[in-house]
Amino acid sequence: ELARALTDAVRFLHDHDDFLVVAHTNPDGDATASVLAMACILERLGKRYTLANEGETPRRYAFLPRADRIVNHGRHPLGRTYTAAIALDCADLERIGDVRNVLAPNAAVLNIDHHVTNTRYGSVNLVVPQDAATAQVVYRLAQAAGVALDAELATCLYAGILSDTGGFRYANTTAEALRVAGELVAAGVRPDVVAERILELLTEPQLRLLQRVLPSLERYGDGRIACLTVTLEDVAAAQATRGDLEGLVAYARNLEGVAVGVLFREDAPDAVKVSLRAREPVDVARIAQEFGGGGHVRAAGCTLRVPLDEAKRRVIARLERETEGLSLVP
Ligand code: 5GP
Ligand code: MN
Ligand code: MN
Hints:
Shape: globular
Bound molecules: guanosine-5'-monophosphate, manganese (II) ion
Low-confidence stretches: none
Mean pLDDT: 97
Strand order of the largest sheet: 3-2-1-4-5-6
CATH class of the largest domain: Alpha Beta
């Protein structure tokens, strides 16, 4: 079935000449790197393309080749429509946000993703839940399309896998993910440079935001739930951007004895983005889905259109039910 999806995806690339390439809003490393890897592939196939996202690309990914070509559709609206699109790292099409408005009514969509909650919204669906990152799925597509690895393509693919495995630490760090990563390094990736940029480098706003957010720590459900909260005021005071919030939730999840770490981020007075990170055996993908979101078993998210206090009350109540009497592995 995967072989069939790959064949269909390669045909999709050959059947069209001009593509819109887009990932999810608030793009993370996998989303950004997958878009840029796709740009390398399309260039090698002699295709035209536009790279777009609803918002801006986090600065930490600006070193990736062609990152400056990703159009911030929120600030510089795309002035035309597209009949062929490639959506990357999006479990559902709502995830591309306002970029949806430039898809022609009958636009053909190639859906490339690795989320278990993917809704198979594409005309062609290349969805591989066992892959660590969408970038790993894009690697499969490059192989199937006969596009050889060069250092630029390999760096994008590697950056996506590195990001989504948390630096080869999470449970999605499979033998195959490591094998592909090894092949990418052999093709010219500098793992030290990519890890420094994506995992280590801190911006000053990021550090200031961390100072403000750590005191917000709250524990619920006999300590099995740890919550951090970021208000609009915190973001403004730290002069932080959305990208500076990536990774904050890990402080909650990594606390000893915690089954679920949560980051509540006030996006507007009546919109709260919730990031969920779980320890085995808790499944947060299912819980996020109940709130209209999605994700992976141990890393998922959703947005609640209610004030901050109300969002916290609802999500914490649901998590308390989930984690009651739970014993953690290990
Ligand atoms: P994060 O908490 O870092 O935003 O997201 C964690 C995981 O959940 C990512 O794989 C992300 O794609 C997914 N995710 C986050 N928010 C949403 C959402 O609102 N809807 C869906 N379908 N997935 C989400
Ligand atoms: Mn993602
Ligand atoms: Mn991903």
